[in-house]
Structures are given as C-alpha cells and as structure tokens.
C-alpha cells in the first residue's frame, strides 16, 4: 500500500476536489478493508486448522478419552498457613490426617458402594446421612469424605478391597490443631466447615474437609491463611484409577501469620485469674496485644471435627459464656477508671484549672437528688490531682456538671472508647459512650443528673476491657495507639509496631503530665492502690482503681452500713484496675476486670501488679532506645 | 456477485416494494440457515426436546427477522442522522445498568425490560459503530490527519469501554475496543498513529491494573487465566476439547454425543454450543457451520465494497468485525485456543438478548445495502 502523508486534496476545493477526495477515500477504505478482511479470513483458517487438529489428528486420542475414560478434576488443598505467637511458637498448626474419599461420578451404584465400604469401615447412620447430603450438594466429581483419621489397618483393608470400591480412594489431608487448647482460643479463634454463604467463588470451598476460620485471627486472616487451591486434571478409568495426569497446577500455600501474644505470658496470666475475670495487656508503645485472657474458655480443637449438640448446649447455656471473648465483647461500666477522661475533658474545655478546689462533704446535692461519694465522711478540699488519687466522687460529679456529657464522650472517643478499634478479632464490640443525642434518639431526655452520674463512670457506659486497656496505653503515651495482634504475615513484618506509626492525640503536655502524676500517686503517693506497688526493680506503676455497682445500693443498706461481704457474690460490685508501667517510660498498659470482685483496690489492683511482674520477667526490661518519643506528648 | 441486484435508482422515494426487492434475500436465507443449525444444536442440547431451548430459539429468531427487515427499509440517511442519539441512548442504558442492573455471576450486566433481559453492552457495540461511521463519514484525508478531529470519536469509544469495565466485563470491553479500532482503521487513520494508540494502550494496561482493588484484579486474573478456577472454566475447557475432539471427522450423529449429554459441559446450550455441534456432526459439521458464519461476515464486506458512501462502508465493516469477533472468540475459546469465556455464538447459542442485538445490527447492514447508492450529501471540508 502506498501512503501519502504529505498529500491532501489541494486548495482548489469545490465539487471536483470533493469528488476526487471521495474517490481517494474509497481507495484507502478498500485497501484497509482488504487488510482487515485478510486478517479475519486468516483467523477463520486458523479456527479450521485447529478443528482439524483436534478432531482428526488428535481425534482418536480424544475419542478414547471420551468413550472409555473420564477426566477427573481434582483439587488439592494447600496447607493452611500457621499462626505463630510472638516467639515463633506454633499456636495453630496442621496435623496429617488419612481419609477415605468418594467421587460420586465414578461409581455406578452409590448405595451399593457405600454398603460395601461400611462392611470394611463401619459407618453410622448419621454418617451415611451426611455423606448422602454432601453427594447431593456437591458437583459429581468433587470428592466427599467418608471417614477421617483412618488407622493403618483401615487403610490397608480399603486398599485390598479397592476393586469392589469404585470411586473410593484414600488420601492424605491435614487437620487444624491448636496445641495451646483453651489458653489462646479467644484470640486465635478456630476453624470449622464453611457455611453455604462462605462458598463464594473460591474453588477451595468445594474441597472435602475444607475448614475456614470462624473466629479470631483464624477468621480475620482467613484469606491469607487459606492460600489457593492446586488442581490436577487426571484421566481415570471406570473404577476411578488414575491412568495419567493431563494437567497440573500447583496451589499456593497459605501464609503464616505471626501474632503479638506471648503464649507463656498468656498462660501465666490465665493461671492467675479466676472465672469471670478478664485481663488485657498491651505493649503501651505500639498497641500490640501481649496477653488477652478471660476465663472460662474452650478448646478450639473441638470445632474441627464438628461440635456435638450436647457440647454446644453446654457452652451456650453456661452463664459464664465460655465462647465469648470478654476482652472484646464483655461490656462494663468503667467506674472510677474513667475519671481521667472526665478530668481531661474539663481541662480541655477550660471549665477547671488543675488547682481549683472542690470541697467534698461526702455527697453532692443537686435538685432533689443526693449523689454520694464513696467516702461517706467526705474528702474535704480536693484538687484534680488529689481527686484522682483518692478517687473522690464529688469532685468528678462537679467536673461532669461543668463540662457536659457530650464533651466527655468526645474525649472518651479520642481515647478509644465507644469507637471501632479495628482489632483483628471479628465481632469485637465497640461499646457505648453515651451522649445527649444518643439518649434523645431513644426518645428520652438527658438530664443534668445523668451527666453527674456519668462523671464517675457509672450510668449507660458499656466498655470492653480492651478499650480500657487502649485508654490506658493512650494516657501513657499521648498517642492514638491502636490495639493489634498481627506482627508479621508470611514472615514480613506489618506496620504498626513502632510508636511513630501512631499519631499524637494532640492533648497539651501539661494536662497529660498532670493526669499521669495523679495516676502515679494512686499507687505510689498514698492513693487507693497503695498496697499494690511494683517490686522496686521493675520501676513504678501508675494506675487507677474502679468499683462499679451491679445493683443499686438502697438507702436502707447505706444507713445500716453497706458491707459487700454480706451480699451474694453476684450482687457484689465489679472490681476494675487500669495501669501502665514503668511510670517514667511506659512499656506495658493493662486493664483488669474482676467480675463481682467487690473492690478495685482489693481485687483488681493486686492482680494487675502480679501480671505486670510476669510481663517484666518475660518481656522487660525495656530494650535500650525504645523510649517513647517525646514528640506529641 | 451472488447478492447483486439491479441498481436502485438514485431518485428519492423508492417505494417499499422496490426496497423489499432490493433486500438481498440470499443473505436472509443464509441467516435462516445459521439459525436452523442453532435450532438443531439446541434440540440436541435439550436431548431432543424442543421445549427446552430450541422452540424459544426459533421464536426469537422469527421475531428478530421481522425487526431486521423492518430496519432494512428505514432510510440510511435517517439512520445516519440519528446515529448519535442511538449512541447516547446506549450510554444511558449502560449507566442505568451500573445503577440498577441485575447482579449475575459477580457482575452487573443486565437490565430487565419486561420479559427480556437486555445486556446494554451488546447494544452499545452496534450503536458505537453507527456513531463512529457517522463521524468519519464527514472525514476527508486531511481531517483524519488532524489529531483534534480524532479526539471526539476516541472519547466516544473510551466512555462506553470504561462503563463496561466497571460492570466489570473485561471481555466485552476489549471487543468493544477492537470494533472501534476497526472503524478507525478503515476510516483511514494514519497507521503510525494507530500503532501509537495500541502501544499507549499496552503501556496503560499494567498501570491501570496496579491501581485496581484486589478483588478487581482477581476478576481479571480469572478472566485471563481460567485455569485459576480449576473446577470451573479450566475444567470446562478440557471437557470441551474432549467432546469436540471425540467427534472426529463425521461426528457421533444427532443426539448421539456422549460428552455433552453426560453433562460434562455445564453450559452446553450457550457458550459451548459449538462443542455440541462438533461432537455430533464432526469436523464436517463444524466446518460447515464455520463456513456459514464466515459467509455472514463476508456479506458485511460485500456491503462495504458496494456502498457508494463512506457511512455505509464503515457501518458494514464495523458490524462485520463485531460479528467476526463473536464467532472467533467463541470458537477459539471452546477449542482451547484462547483463554477467555462468556461469549455466545450469535444466532446459534441460546439467549434472547444477543439474538436481538445481532439481528438489529443485520437490519442496519441491510439498510446500508438497500440504500447503497443513496446520496449521503457532500463531504464537508
């Protein structure tokens, strides 16, 4: 073809040039259409030759494949990635598992084959029902598990009787195993057979015996842990024996996920706590969860093989809710541990200066209501520091009244309460930070009396132990550290392990210092937790006690002199303690909630001290140069 | 030439009867032949039961035939004048499908219009060809050399392609691109600009791929590499090749195909209908079918060469390329030659939307033929 990029129709214009142009255009079109036509004709020729090759040259081969044989597609599951703890210890691994499989399309008479099989390996009625259901549900070439965990003897008997068992084969699978059983169940989670809804478009879901993460890290990182199915196309004869492999595609193994929990520390913490107690220990500098323990727990291995109805009833009926991770799903009022937030809100709103004195006569009268302080005789004149130290209620009633609920809630949100903390534990609750608007949305007015009650962390608050630990870590560092469990995926560290990964909360240094000083004084300066000081080699801890009523104390009880030891345990108040340590360079932040523990100073603070001692022994003292950057404080 | 008739007078107002006479009935018979092949294949796919697919197919084709002949009588000048209206309408439908479309197989592609499910991306390709033909009809060699003149039609291609990608339907988006490119090429765009355009696309693709979400990338991967879905597309291709290959020279005979009837082909009535034909009627049947489909494309070229106006020429080339791509992609797919999925064989596969849009295209083609000597007005410089 001749192209004339320099050519044009000329400047003459008019009918003649248009006609000439038209002819020329037609010429170009004809040549180009010819090129296009040739390409398309060539494409048709290619299709013809392709058909000739498949149908004539390779026709005999395909005819054999079609008539005598079947092509069978077999998926094989890649090994599921493991979950490792902080020290590389396997906390969710895989164990070999020999299983008998049945490919329905390879057997002429399903009933007869199953009958023969059950003479070799006895099958119960419910097993038969399950097998028939799975055969109906799956595509015909997808193998169905007849029986798992075969013994050598059973495998030998199956192999010997292979000719009578068309479509049945033995293969090696893996089963999830949790070596730490109940100690890490709430964090690591468990796997179980996929629900119909999980199937999606992942071919792996069609595999027999496939398990997907249903809770905890197993569920959050399910895609990463799962990997991708490998597949092999094999030619099989009438009884399902593999003649040859036609095509193979390797799977991609699931990646290992390393979490931040220290298993030994977790076990030590669990050994210290009783039923109903929850403790969350964070690395204060970066929000890594070092231990997250609650009792009672459960054995995740049980989910693997299917939970029996009796077991399920036992779990769900128990008032102690073993399946629920109370650290992320238990909801509590924070009580006095919330007073730091009220103080910070008051400082930020400039409704109080640190030195302002509020006089505590043992109660605050507002309207017709009298709000009591836990100290019936009154604390006398209180400033902010002494009010936190002695946990004076009247001071915070007054602060709350001045600052208002909405600003308290906003400050609470900044410290990680009532917001989504994005921890890698599906289903974690965000809790509730009550506001005026929230109450009005319920159709109820908000009264100043409500605000006053909320000044001491009572009322509508619903906070998780995790969020209290986060609050403490943020108080300790001044940074918006997020709690997280993932340290590395497939051996590559993930972001979030350095303090600098988290932004500053933007609260003035002086305010933060004041609060920290007061929390230090709670333990070391004659405050409510003076009995729970750390042994001196670990430095000093700063903290705050809390005791929250689960039943209202009646006037009568109050007048008689209320004594918790005289009421049934489930009526006793919850005991709370939040702390960070060491005070001058925080490494650890934790929250402890002892349900019905009666008093924060009596039950929760000593426990917190013991847990911190364990943490120092295992993970401390600080590696040099790990001091939290001063910027943003 | 086989379809040749006496020239239509260039006078205005040719009567309906005269126009009917001008319709190339040989081509209409050819289409009926292709549809008949479809009927037989669908009868087989329904194991001999016409109620399964075949009957519906015949009814749809009959309806499509009426639509086609109706459009054939419409004056080509009228069609050219309203080409952009049709184009904008199709774009609007594509937007509508994104907003309100039915979700099927993980993508939004259809809208329900009464009993019919319309796939606007199919309609779009035809309207795009119309719009581009109308645009380039005004183009002299000079104007085509001006990059500014090429920008509006380029946008006209990229807008629907973008909308189709968003569904997401990468296959149809690519085919739409190719159809558009064929018209650009035939209109006389400088070949080196053409090459630059292709190169730019080749460079842009990986960059765009990088910016996609993971799940979008996963869709593209599955599209380009069906083996990544080993129990789905990959399995189907192997089974398709076995069924096809085992047909041999003469085939196993009508209703005698073993593979298709054993349900090894999960979508034998749609995407894998050609496999059915090849298995039961062998290489002879497959090549006969292929030849008929090729003749349909060839007729588009005939119309293009016979048209005295650029509009008709470009329209015919565009529509021919569109039809060619349907056939090529489908047959290449079932023979395991290219790794794509989800393209029906027009006039043969079961499915109403594709049938209707294809017949609509042929209606336009016939109008271009009937009015091949129409005076389309002077080309403006």
UniProtKB/TrEMBL annotation, chain A:
Positions of the Penicillin-binding protein dimerisation domain: 78-246
Keyword terms, alphabetized: Carboxypeptidase, Cell inner membrane, Cell membrane, Cell shape, Cell wall biogenesis/degradation, Hydrolase, Membrane, Peptidoglycan synthesis, Protease, Transmembrane, Transmembrane helix
Cell wall biogenesis/degradation keyword on record: yes
Classification via SUPFAM superfamilies: beta-lactamase/transpeptidase-like, Penicillin binding protein dimerisation domain
Gene3D superfamilies referenced in this protein's UniProt entry, alphabetically: DD-peptidase/beta-lactamase superfamily, Penicillin-binding protein 2a (Domain 2)
Mode of membrane association: Single-pass membrane protein
Domain Penicillin-binding protein transpeptidase: 278-612
Keyword Protease: yes
Pfam families (UniProt xref): PBP_dimer, Transpeptidase
Compartments (UniProt record): Cell membrane; Membrane
Location (main, coarse): membrane
Annotated NCBIfam families: pbp2_mrdA
Protein name: Peptidoglycan glycosyltransferase
Lineage: Bacteria, Pseudomonadati, Pseudomonadota, Alphaproteobacteria, Acetobacterales
UniProtKB/TrEMBL annotation, chain B:
Enzyme type, top EC level: transferase
Enzyme Commission code: 2.4.99.28
Bilayer topology annotation: Multi-pass membrane protein
Pathway given in the UniProt record: Cell wall biogenesis; peptidoglycan biosynthesis
Subcellular location: Cell inner membrane; Membrane
Catalysed reaction, written as an equation: [GlcNAc-(1->4)-Mur2Ac(oyl-L-Ala-gamma-D-Glu-L-Lys-D-Ala-D-Ala)](n)-di-trans,octa-cis-undecaprenyl diphosphate + beta-D-GlcNAc-(1->4)-Mur2Ac(oyl-L-Ala-gamma-D-Glu-L-Lys-D-Ala-D-Ala)-di-trans,octa-cis-undecaprenyl diphosphate = [GlcNAc-(1->4)-Mur2Ac(oyl-L-Ala-gamma-D-Glu-L-Lys-D-Ala-D-Ala)](n+1)-di-trans,octa-cis-undecaprenyl diphosphate + di-trans,octa-cis-undecaprenyl diphosphate + H(+)
Transmembrane annotation, as ranges: 20-45, 57-76, 83-103, 148-165, 171-187, 281-302, 314-335, 347-370
Keyword RNA-binding carried by entry: no
Chief location category: membrane
Keyword annotations: Cell inner membrane, Cell membrane, Cell shape, Cell wall biogenesis/degradation, Glycosyltransferase, Membrane, Peptidoglycan synthesis, Transferase, Transmembrane, Transmembrane helix
Keyword Transmembrane applies: yes
Protein family according to the UniProt entry: Belongs to the SEDS family. MrdB/RodA subfamily.
Cited PANTHER family: CELL CYCLE PROTEIN, PEPTIDOGLYCAN GLYCOSYLTRANSFERASE MRDB
Job description of the protein: Peptidoglycan polymerase that is essential for cell wall elongation.
Name of the featured protein: Peptidoglycan glycosyltransferase MrdB
Annotated organism of origin: Roseomonas fluvialis
């Amino acid at each position: 073809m001749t192209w004339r990029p320099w050519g044009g129709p000329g400047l003459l214009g008019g009918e003649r040039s248009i006609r000439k142009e038209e002819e020329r255009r037609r010429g170009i079109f004809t040549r180009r259409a010819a090129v296009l036509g040739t390409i398309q004709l060539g494409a048709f020729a290619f299709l013809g030759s392709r058909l000739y090759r498949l149908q004539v040259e390779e026709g005999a081969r395909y005819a054999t494949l079609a008539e005598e044989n079947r092509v069978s597609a077999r998926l094989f599951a890649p090994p599921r990635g493991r979950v490792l703890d902080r020290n590389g210890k396997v906390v969710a691994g895989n164990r070999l598992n020999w299983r008998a499989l049945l490919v329905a399309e390879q057997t002429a008479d399903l009933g007869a084959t199953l009958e023969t099989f059950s003479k070799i390996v006895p099958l119960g009625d419910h097993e038969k029902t399950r097998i028939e259901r799975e055969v109906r549900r799956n595509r015909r070439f997808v193998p169905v598990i007849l029986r798992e965990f075969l013994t050598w003897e059973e495998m030998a008997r199956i192999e010997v009787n292979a000719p009578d068992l068309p479509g049945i084969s033995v293969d090696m699978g893996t089963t999830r195993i949790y070596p730490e059983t109940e100690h890490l169940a709430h964090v690591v989670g468990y796997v179980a057979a996929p629900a119909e809804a999980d199937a999606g478009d992942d071919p792996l879901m069609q595999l027999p015996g496939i398990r997907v993460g249903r809770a905890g890290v197993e569920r959050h990182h399910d895609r990463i842990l799962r990997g991708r199915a490998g597949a092999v196309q094999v030619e099989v004869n009438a009884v399902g024996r593999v003649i040859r492999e036609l095509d193979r595609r390797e799977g991609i193994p699931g990646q290992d996920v390393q979490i931040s929990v220290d298993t030994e520390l977790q076990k030590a913490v669990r050994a210290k706590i009783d039923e109903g107690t929850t403790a969350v220990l964070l690395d204060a500098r970066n929000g890594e969860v070092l231990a997250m323990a609650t009792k009672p727990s459960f054995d995740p291995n049980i989910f693997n093989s299917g939970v029996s109805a009796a077991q399920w009833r036992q779990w769900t009926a128990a008032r102690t809710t073993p399946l629920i991770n109370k650290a992320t799903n238990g909801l509590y009022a924070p009580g006095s541990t919330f007073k730091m937030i009220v103080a910070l809100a008051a400082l930020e709103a400039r409704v109080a200066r640190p030195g302002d004195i509020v006089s505590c006569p043992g109660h605050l009268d507002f309207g017709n209501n009298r709000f009591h302080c836990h100290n019936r005789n009154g604390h006398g004149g209180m400033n902010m520091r002494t009010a936190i130290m002695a946990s004076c209620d009247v001071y915070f009633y007054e602060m709350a009244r001045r600052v208002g609920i909405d600003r308290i809630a906003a400050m609470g949100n900044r410290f990680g309460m009532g917001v989504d903390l994005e921890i890698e534990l599906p289903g974690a609750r965000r809790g509730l930070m009550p506001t005026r608007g929230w109450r009005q949305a319920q159709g109820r007015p908000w009264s100043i009396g409500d605000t006053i009650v909320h000044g001491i962390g009572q009322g509508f608050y619903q906070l998780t132990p995790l969020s209290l630990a986060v609050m403490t870590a943020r108080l300790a560092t001044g940074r918006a550290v997020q709690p997280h469990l993932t340290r590395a995926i497939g051996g590559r560290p993930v972001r979030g392990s350095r303090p600098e990964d988290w932004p500053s909360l933007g609260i003035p240094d002086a305010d933060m210092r004041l609060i920290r000083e007061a929390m230090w004084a709670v333990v070391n300066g004659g405050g409510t937790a003076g009995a729970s000081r750390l042994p001196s080699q670990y430095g000093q801890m700063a903290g705050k006690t809390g005791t929250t009523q689960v039943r209202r104390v009646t006037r009568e009880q109050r007048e008689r002199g209320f004594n918790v030891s005289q009421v049934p345990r489930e009526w006793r108040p919850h005991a709370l303690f939040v702390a960070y340590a060491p005070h001058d360079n925080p490494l650890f932040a934790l929250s402890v909630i002892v349900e019905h523990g009666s008093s924060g100073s009596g039950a929760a603070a000593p426990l917190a001290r013991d847990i911190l001692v364990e943490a120092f022994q295992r993970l401390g003292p600080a590696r040099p140069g790990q001091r939290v950057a001063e910027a943003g404080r | 030439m086989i379809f040749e008739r006496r020239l239509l007078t260039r006078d205005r107002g040719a009567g309906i009867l005269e126009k009917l006479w001008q319709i190339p009935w040989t081509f209409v018979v050819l289409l009926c032949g292709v549809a008949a092949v479809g009927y037989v294949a669908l009868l087989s796919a329904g194991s001999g039961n016409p109620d399964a697919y075949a009957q519906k197919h015949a009814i749809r084709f009959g309806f499509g035939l009426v639509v086609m002949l109706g459009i054939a009588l419409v004056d080509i000048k009228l069609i050219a004048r309203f080409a952009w209206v049709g184009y904008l309408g199709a774009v609007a439908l594509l937007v509508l499908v994104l907003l309100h479309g039915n979700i099927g197989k993980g993508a939004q592609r259809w809208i329900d219009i009464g009993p019919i499910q319309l796939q606007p991306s199919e309609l779009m390709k035809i309207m795009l060809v119309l719009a581009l033909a109308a645009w380039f009809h005004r183009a002299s060699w000079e104007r085509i050399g001006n990059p500014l003149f090429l920008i509006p039609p380029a946008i006209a291609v990229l807008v629907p392609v973008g909308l189709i990608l968003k569904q997401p339907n990468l296959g149809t988006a690519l085919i739409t691109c190719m159809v558009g490119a064929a018209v650009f090429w035939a209109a006389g765009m400088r070949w080196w600009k053409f090459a630059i355009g292709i190169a730019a696309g080749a460079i842009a693709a990986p960059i765009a791929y990088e910016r996609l979400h993971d799940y979008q990338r996963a869709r593209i991967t599955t599209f380009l590499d069906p083996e990544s879905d080993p129990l789905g597309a990959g399995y189907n291709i192997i089974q398709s090749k076995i069924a096809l290959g085992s047909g041999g020279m003469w085939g196993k005979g009508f209703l005698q195909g073993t593979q298709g009837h054993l349900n090894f082909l999960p979508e034998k009535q749609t995407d894998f209908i050609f496999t059915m034909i090849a298995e039961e009627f062998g290489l002879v049947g497959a090549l006969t079918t292929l030849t008929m489909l090729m003749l349909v494309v060839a007729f588009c070229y005939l119309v293009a060469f016979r048209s005295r106006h650029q509009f008709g020429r470009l329209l015919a080339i565009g529509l021919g390329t569109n039809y060619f791509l349907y056939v090529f992609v489908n047959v290449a797919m079932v023979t395991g030659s290219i790794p794509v999925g989800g393209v029906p064989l027009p006039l043969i596969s079961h499915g109403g939307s594709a049938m209707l849009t294809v017949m609509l295209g042929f209606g336009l083609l016939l109008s271009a033929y009937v009015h091949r000597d129409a005076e389309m007005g002077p080309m403006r410089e």
